[in-house]
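Researcher: Next entry in the queue.
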Amino acid sequence: MPLPSQFEERIRLLYPEAADRILSAFATPRVTSLRVNTLKTSVEEVRTALEAAGYPLEQMPWWENAFIVTNPETQQIFHPMYEEGKFYVQGLSSMLPPLILDPQPDENILDLTAAPGSKTTQLGLLMKNTGHILANDLSPVRLFKLQANLNQQGVTNAQVKRGPGELLWRKFPEQFDRTLVDVPCSMEGRFETNDPKSYDDWSLKKIKELSMRQKMLLRSAISATKPGGVIVYSTCTMAPEENEAVVNWALEKEGGKVVVEAIEMPALLSLDSELITGGVTEWNGQSYSPEVAKTLRIYPSQRMEGFYVAKLRKLESTITPEALAAPRPHRHFQHRRSRR
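Model: Structure for this entry, 340 residues:
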């Protein structure tokens, strides 16, 4: 079953020079990747054990904890170290938002849409179990998985909370040093041509609905972050409506109180320029702030899922007493989430 024709048309408009390469990537099995959990072990211990068990590894140049299994036929890793929480199977692109957020020891961190916890547990690793992480999500089932992952990987500095991320800023106004907001999205970066379930509910209507929610989640993340703090916004989709348009909307709403910062990862950015580029500044007749060119687009390939990451800096307070005193709207959302 082919990918939706309308989706293919959009890819060709977005990336006229790289479209064939990108579309062919959806039909290519992605390599298995993992990160070592140094809360429980060392990089060398995991590498030695897995290679001895028949899993040849290649270390990524942009993070010493990240590896791929170089045998492309390996789709799963069976090893006791996994159950022991010593490594975690995770897409390479998914590892980037926590690294870009760069949480520091003893900071107060918000993971606004946290479940099932791949990025939350990575934040705990980067912070070496110091400070505090508030890991929020709305789904009880997903929160159960989040807690299980935290326990398995030995993350002890995270507190799990259930609630709509759009409203969380009201309870925690400007209280966090850094906030990660990895939002529900249309998951275009994870499409697989041979798996119709990965794209069978894709539609432009869904993209529009998700974009509305993503804007509310990003603005809540900004409102929950201290002046001077950092917000990282990420998706696993290609749609500008869910990526640059959301960031552009937030910049306009906050009126200069929030700016886009360049993402500094030289070892990553030195890779193939057709696979990693800056954000687009216009799409479908809409122009965006030149600032969104500082955001990051990762195109799908054999190694990487399609992804989008933006790093924002909050320069001054964005909350007024009137906003805090306003009645809370009642909202209920149900959208399929990616397995991050």
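Model: The chain is about 30% helix and 20% strand.
Researcher: Noted, moving on.
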